C-alpha cells in the first residue's frame, strides 16, 4: 500500500506522484492532505522546499475530479447486445460508499474520512452521501472521540443540518435527551468520551431507536407514515466535539454492538439518494441511477435501439466553471504550480482535468487564457493582477469556486491585500475552503486577514515562527570601505586592476570626490563601489560554480551583471568565469523563463535576481545563495536563503553587509522609477531613502548566528565547502541504513515470489472438479 493511500489520495493521483519518485509524503503533506480532503480551512506553515505545492494541489485535484466526475455517485446499468442485435441492461452497478458529504455540511464541520469535528462556538452539522428508504432494519455506530456537545441520529434531506430541531430529523444528544421538532425530552442516559452510540432505523415498523455501548433504551420515535418511503440519512451535530463513525463498510474495524433482531450494517442496505434534492456544485448535470434507468426505458420504448451513453456523448455540454482558484505572488511560481498540477493530474482522464494558467503578460497570452477559460477551466492558477482583471471583466466565472488558495500567502497579503479582498468578496461562501500556504504565516497582517476570511481554520505549523533549515551555513562579510580600499580600483583608470562599475547614480550630484570618507554620502557611494568587488572575491574564495545572487533593485541587478561580464570576459557560457543571467520584474515573461531555465540547466553559473525570484525557485542541490544587498525583512531572508539547504543537502548563504547606511532608490513616483532622477528623500517628496543594513543584519544575526569570513574571504574551517550541495551525514546514514535493510530482505522477497509462483502453478494443475 502506498503511503499516500493512507492519506486518502486516490490511485490515479498516486500513480502520477510515484512516477515523480515521490515515495513518501513530506511532513507538510502528511498533515495537510487529510485536513483538506476532510473539508475546512487550513493555514499551513513549513520551511521552503518542504513540498507545500503537493500538500494543497493533490487534495484539490482529487476533490475537483470527484466533483466534476461524480463517478461514485452514479449507478449506470451496463448495456449489452443480444443475438438479435438488441440491447439489454445488466444489473451491474457502481459500488456506493457512505461518506460524510463535503457539500451537505456546515462550514465549521471538519471531515477527515469518517471522523467529524467542530471547534466552533456554534453548532455545526452534516449528513452522509447516501441513505436508505427500502423496508429493512439498519444500524450504524458513532463513537465520541473528544468531549463536547454531540447529537446523532437520522435525517431526511428536507431537514436542516441542525438535527432534532425540525420535523424531518430525529436526534439523540450527549445530555441524555432525544429531540424532534425542537422538543427535547429525557431519553436513556447521557454519553461522553469513548462511548459508542448505536443508531437503529426500522423502516418496516417505522421506529427509531438508540443504544449506548450496546445498552438498548427502547423505542425513541414512532415515525409518521408519511415519512416512510423517503430516504433516511445518518446525521450529526457537534459543538466543540469530535465523533468517529462506522457504517459497517470497514474490513479492519468491525461494528462493536450490532443488535439482534435482523438489523444489518447500513452499508449492506440498498443505498440511494433523495432524487428531489441531489444537487451539483458545477454546471455539469448529475444524473442519478433512477434517472438513467428511466431514460433507458424511454429510449427502448421508442425503439431507437441506440446506446444511451452514445446519445449523451453527442449532446453538447456546457463548459465547466472553475472550482479552484490558486493565487501566486509571481509568474515563475504560478508557472511551476501549473506544471505540477499537470503532472499530478496525468491519469485523471475521465473527464480530463483542465487547469488554466493566467499570467496575461501580453495580448496573445490573454487571448489564450480567455479561450481556455471559455472551454473548460477547472483549476485557475495566476498572479493577483491578471486574476483581478479577469474577474472584474467577467472572464473568470467564480460562482462555483470551492477552493481559494493563497500560496506564499505572506507576500500576497503584504503586496496585494486590496485585490485579495475584492476577489474573496466575489466568491461564494457556502462550502468554500480557504487555504493559506507559506514558509512564514506569523505576521500580524497574515493573522488579521486569516481571521477575516477563514472560519475556525486548522493551523499546520511544523517548524514554528521564522524557522530556517539547519543545513544552511550562514556567513557574512562586512563591506567596510575604510578597511578594504581596493574599491578605489573602480575609479582609477590607470590601474591594471581597473574594471569600471556603473552605480545607481544616487550620488551623481552630491558627491564630487572620494579622496576622504567623511560624509554619509561619501561612505554610501564607497560601499556601492566596494560591494561588487567583494562579491567577486567571495565567489573566487569559495570556488563557486553555481550561485543565486540577490540584489535589491532591478538597476542593481543590471549593473552587477555588466560588471561580472566585464570581469569574466564577456557573456559566454560556462567557459566564462562569471557567466550570468538576470531575473527581475522588468524583464518580459518569456525572457525571465528562458533565463531561469538557463540557470537551472547549468548553461550559466549565476542568476542575479530581485526578491521576485526568492519564492518558487526549486533547483536540486543548489549550493550557494549570496545576499548582495540584504532584504527588507527577516521573512524575506528566510525565503532567499531557503533556496539552499533543501532535501537534506548542505548549503551556504553569504551576506555582503554594508558597514554604513546606504542611500538607495525608493520610487513612489507615478512611473515607478522610469526616467526618475529625483534623489531627494521621500520625506522631501523625493524617491530616495537611507537603507540601514547594519540594523537589518543585527536582527538577522540574533536568529541565525552567522559566521564572519576572514580576510581571505573564507571560513576558518573550509571543510564544509567540500560537502556543499551534497547530502548531510545524517541523510547519508539513513540511505545506507535503508540499503542494508533492503539487502537483508532481498533473499526473503525472492523466496516469497518463488513460493507464490509454485502455488499458482499447483492450483492450475489441480483436477477440474476441485476448482
From TrEMBL:
InterPro entries to which the protein is assigned, alphabetical: B30.2/SPRY, B30.2/SPRY_sf, ConA-like_dom_sf, DEAD/DEAH_box_helicase_dom, DEAD_box_RNA_helicase, Helicase_ATP-bd, Helicase_C-like, P-loop_NTPase
Residue ranges the record marks as coiled coil: 728-758
Domain B30.2/SPRY per the UniProt entry, residue ranges: 58-252
Keyword Nuclease on entry: yes
Naturally occurring in which organism (per UniProt): Cavenderia fasciculata (Slime mold)
Lineage: Eukaryota, Amoebozoa, Evosea, Eumycetozoa, Dictyostelia
DEAD-box RNA helicase Q domain sequence ranges: 2-30
Protein name: DEAD box protein 1
GO molecular function (one): exonuclease activity
Keywords: ATP-binding, Coiled coil, Exonuclease, Helicase, Hydrolase, Nuclease, Nucleotide-binding
Gene Ontology annotations for the cellular component aspect, listed alphabetically: cytosol
A Pfam family assignment: Helicase_C
Amino acid at each position: 500500500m502506498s503511503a499516500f493511500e493512507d492519506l486518502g489520495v486516490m490511485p490515479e493521483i498516486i500513480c502520477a506522484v510515484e512516477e515523480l519518485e515521490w515515495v513518501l509524503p513530506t511532513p507538510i503533506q502528511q498533515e495537510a492532505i487529510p485536513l483538506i480532503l476532510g473539508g475546512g480551512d487550513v493555514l499551513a506553515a513549513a520551511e521552503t522546499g518542504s513540498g507545500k505545492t503537493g500538500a494543497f494541489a493533490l487534495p484539490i485535484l482529487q476533490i475537483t475530479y470527484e466533483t466534476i466526475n461524480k463517478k461514485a455517485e452514479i449507478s449506470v446499468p451496463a448495456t449489452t447486445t443480444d443475438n438479435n442485435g438488441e440491447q439489454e441492461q445488466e444489473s451491474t452497478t457502481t459500488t456506493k460508499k457512505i461518506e460524510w458529504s463535503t457539500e451537505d455540511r456546515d462550514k465549521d464541520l471538519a471531515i477527515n474520512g469518517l471522523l467529524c469535528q467542530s471547534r466552533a462556538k456554534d453548532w455545526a452539522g452534516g449528513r452522509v452521501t447516501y441513505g436508505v428508504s427500502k423496508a429493512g432494519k439498519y444500524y450504524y455506530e458513532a463513537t465520541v472521540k473528544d468531549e463536547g456537545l454531540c447529537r446523532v441520529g437520522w435525517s431526511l434531506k428536507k431537514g436542516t443540518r441542525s438535527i432534532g430541531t425540525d420535523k424531518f430529523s430525529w436526534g439523540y444528544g450527549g445530555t441524555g435527551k432525544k429531540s424532534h421538532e425542537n422538543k427535547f425530552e429525557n431519553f436513556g442516559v447521557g454519553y461522553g468520551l469513548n462511548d459508542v452510540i448505536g443508531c437503529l432505523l426500522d423502516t418496516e415498523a417505522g421506529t427509531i431507536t438508540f443504544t449506548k455501548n450496546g445498552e438498548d433504551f427502547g423505542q425513541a420515535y414512532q415515525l409518521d407514515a408519511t415519512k416512510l418511503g423517503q430516504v433516511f440519512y445518518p446525521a450529526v451535530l457537534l459543538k466543540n466535539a469530535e465523533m468517529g463513525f462506522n457504517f459497517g463498510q470497514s474490513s479492519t474495524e468491525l461494528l462493536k454492538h450490532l443488535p439482534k433482531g435482523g438489523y444489518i450494517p447500513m452499508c449492506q442496505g440498498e443505498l440511494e439518494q433523495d432524487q428531489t434534492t441531489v444537487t451539483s456544485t458545477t454546471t455539469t448535470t448529475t444524473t442519478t441511477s433512477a434517472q438513467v434507468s428511466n431514460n433507458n426505458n424511454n429510449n427502448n420504448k421508442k425503439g431507437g435501439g441506440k446506446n444511451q451513453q452514445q446519445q449523451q456523448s453527442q449532446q453538447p455540454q456546457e463548459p465547466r466553471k472553475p472550482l479552484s482558484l490558486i493565487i501566486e505572488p509571481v509568474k515563475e511560481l504560478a508557472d511551476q504550480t501549473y506544471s505540477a498540477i499537470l503532472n499530478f493530474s496525468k491519469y485523471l482522464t475521465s473527464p480530463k482535468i483542465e487547469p488554466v494558467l493566467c499570467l496575461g503578460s501580453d495580448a496573445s497570452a490573454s487571448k489564450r487564457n480567455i479561450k481556455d477559460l471559455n472551454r473548460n477551466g477547472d483549476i485557475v492558477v495566476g498572479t493577483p493582477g491578471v486574476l483581478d482583471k479577469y474577474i472584474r471583466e467577467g472572464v473568470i466565472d467564480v460562482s462555483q469556486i470551492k477552493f481559494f488558495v493563497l500560496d506564499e500567502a505572506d507576500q500576497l497579503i503584504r503586496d496585494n491585500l486590496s485585490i485579495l479582498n475584492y476577489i474573496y468578496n466575489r466568491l461564494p461562501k457556502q462550502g468554500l475552503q480557504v487555504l493559506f500556504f507559506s514558509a512564514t504565516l506569523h505576521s500580524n497582517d497574515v493573522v488579521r486577514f486569516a481571521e477575516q476570511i477563514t472560519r475556525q481554520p486548522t493551523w499546520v505549523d511544523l517548524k514554528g515562527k521564522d524557522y530556517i533549515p539547519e543545513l544552511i551555513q550562514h556567513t557574512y562579510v562586512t563591506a567596510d570601505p575604510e578597511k578594504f580600499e581596493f574599491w578605489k580600483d573602480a575609479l582609477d583608470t590607470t590601474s591594471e586592476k581597473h574594471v569600471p562599475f556603473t552605480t545607481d547614480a544616487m550620488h551623481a550630484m552630491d558627491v564630487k570626490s572620494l579622496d576622504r570618507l567623511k560624509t554619509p554620502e561619501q561612505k554610501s557611494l564607497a560601499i556601492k563601489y566596494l560591494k561588487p568587488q567583494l562579491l567577486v572575491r567571495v565567489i573566487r574564495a569559495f570556488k563557486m560554480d553555481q550561485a543565486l545572487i540577490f540584489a535589491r533593485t532591478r538597476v542593481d541587478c543590471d549593473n552587477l551583471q555588466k560588471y561580472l561580464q566585464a570581469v569574466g570576459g564577456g557573456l559566454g557560457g560556462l567557459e566564462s568565469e562569471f557567466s550570468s543571467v538576470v531575473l527581475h520584474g522588468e524583464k518580459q515573461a518569456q525572457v525571465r523563463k528562458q533565463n531561469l531555465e538557463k540557470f537551472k540547466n547549468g548553461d550559466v553559473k549565476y542568476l542575479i535576481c530581485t526578491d521576485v525570484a526568492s519564492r518558487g525557485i526549486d533547483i536540486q542541490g543548489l549550493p550557494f545563495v549570496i545576499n548582495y544587498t540584504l532584504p527588507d525583512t527577516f521573512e524575506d531572508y528566510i525565503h532567499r536563503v531557503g533556496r539552499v539547504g533543501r532535501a537534506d543537502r548542505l548549503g551556504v548563504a553569504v551576506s555582503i553587509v554594508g558597514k554604513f547606511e546606504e542611500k538607495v532608490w525608493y520610487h513612489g513616483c507615478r512611473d515607478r522609477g522610469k526616467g526618475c532622477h529625483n534623489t531627494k528623500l521621500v520625506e522631501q517628496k523625493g524617491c530616495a531613502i537611507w537603507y540601514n543594513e547594519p540594523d537589518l543584519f543585527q536582527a538577522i544575526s540574533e536568529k541565525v548566528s552567522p559566521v564572519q569570513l576572514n580576510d581571505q574571504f573564507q571560513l576558518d574551517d573550509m571543510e564544509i565547502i567540500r560537502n556543499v550541495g551534497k547530502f548531510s551525514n545524517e541523510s547519508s546514514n539513513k540511505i545506507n541504513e535503508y540499503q542494508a535493510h533492503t539487502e537483508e530482505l532481498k533473499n526473503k522477497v525472492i523466496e516469497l515470489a518463488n513460493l507464490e509462483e509454485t502455488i499458482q502453478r499447483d492450483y492450475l494443475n489441480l483436477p477440474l472438479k476441485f476448482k
